[in-house]
Design a protein that fits this description.
Helices cover 88% and strands 0% of the residues. It is mainly alpha-helical.
């Protein structure tokens, strides 16, 4: 923390720190946007997987009891 304060008082470096902070904020926002855009596919795949597992269990039950 002390180094940051000293670095901020050096002429010309505070602008660079601000630019780095803004750049990291923009990159974080882009990453969050990608996660949000990808999440519907992840949720859909999760529900599809659950449906497949349930279908397999029902099919196995019907086969075990000779109902199929």
């Amino acid at each position: 923390m002390q180094e940051f304060l000293v670095l901020g008082n050096v002429p010309g470096t505070s602008l660079q720190i601000t630019f780095t902070a803004w750049l990291s904020l923009v990159l974080l926002l882009c990453l969050a946007a990608l996660v949000i855009l990808r999440s519907p596919h992840i949720v859909t795949n999760m529900y599809r997987h659950i449906a497949n597992v349930r279908a397999e269990k029902v099919l196995r039950f019907l086969q075990q009891h000779n109902l199929l």
